[in-house]
Specification:
The protein is mainly alpha-helical. It has 2 domains: 18-87, Arc Repressor Mutant, subunit A; 102-251, GntR ligand-binding domain-like (Four Helix Bundle (Hemerythrin (Met), subunit A), Up-down Bundle), CATH 1.20.120. Helix content is 71%, strand content 4%. It has helices at 18-32, 43-50, 54-66, 89-124, 127-142, 147-163, 168-188, 192-211, 214-235, 240-244, 246-251, and strands at residues 39-40, 70-73, 79-82. Strands 1-3-2 form a 3-stranded antiparallel beta sheet. Helix 3 (54-66) packs across helix 4 (89-124), helix 5 packs antiparallel against helix 6 and helix 7 crosses helix 9. The longest helix has 36 residues, at 89-124. It is elongated, with a radius of gyration of 20 Å.
Length: 252
């Protein structure tokens, strides 16, 4: 098979959403004149060229697979392959909308499940559990300004919360939520201001848990959930109230 045409993709500059990554990838495929069976660069190279993380790239590739433009094959002989010479614009638009709807579902589920988990953690957490939660907060503070490290510390905080419930079924359920949230957090949250607010709400959450103050905990949880929900709504050009307000949740 002859070598594939040179493939260069413009970096995502204005936004880190998966929609922008999709646009840049489809434009690069057309510009390079790729045909059915041609192979794209691997995930690491694509993510580096686009200036996004692998979770965001995989979200974009999932949409392009659903639309029928590419196929992602796993294993040693795997890779990312073009499966049609024609860019299916309508199918891509439909797949993007489905991905956005799936993200809304995950964010709504998070409100229900994570709230229950945190209240259970407040009831069950031992002093040692609270010390571990404090350690993750210290790690987050230490790495402010280093986005990948902040995200890892934030994930550690949430895993420590779940462990403190001492319930395997809860842990299994929340692993699913975490997988769904990972690309959303990566694509729609970010920046020093956002990370600073995350640090602040984590501290307030621990304080409310130590005092067993359910009302204060509810207030900080709502603020915490709204942070990512608001960023997501803004990123897709919608209002928070339309997607996550009381009427929207009842309609959903």
């Amino acid at each position: 098979m002859p070598p594939a045409p040179s493939f260069e993709v413009e970096p995502v500059r204005a936004t880190r959403t998966f929609e922008a990554a999709i646009e840049h990838l489809t434009e690069a495929i057309e510009r390079a004149g790729l045909r059915t069976g041609d192979r794209l660069p691997n995930e690491g190279a694509l993510a580096e060229q686009l200036g996004i993380s692998k979770p965001t790239l995989r979200q974009a590739l999932r949409v392009l697979e659903l639309s029928g433009l590419v196929e992602v094959r796993r294993g040693k002989s795997g890779g990312i392959f073009v499966v049609t010479d024609l860019v299916p614009s309508v199918a891509i638009f439909t797949a993007v909308k489905l991905e956005e709807e799936a993200a809304v579902d995950v964010l709504r589920a998070r409100r229900v499940l994570e709230r229950a988990v945190v209240h259970e953690a407040m009831r069950m957490a031992t002093p040692a559990d609270l010390v571990e939660l404090e350690r993750t907060i210290e790690l987050l503070e230490r790495h402010l300004g280093e986005r990948p490290s902040v995200m890892r510390a934030d994930a550690m905080f949430h895993r420590a919360l779940v462990r403190s419930c001492r319930n395997e079924t809860i842990q299994t359920a929340m692993r699913g939520v975490a997988r769904g949230l990972s690309p959303i957090r990566d694509a729609y949250s970010g920046g020093v201001a956002y990370d600073g607010r995350t640090l602040e709400v984590h501290r307030r959450q621990i304080d409310a848990m130590r005092r067993h103050d359910g009302d204060a905990l509810e207030q900080v949880l709502d603020e915490h959930f709204r942070m990512l929900e608001t960023q997501f709504a803004k990123g897709i050009g919608r209002r928070w109230s339309d997607l996550f307000g009381p009427r929207a949740r009842r309609a959903g």
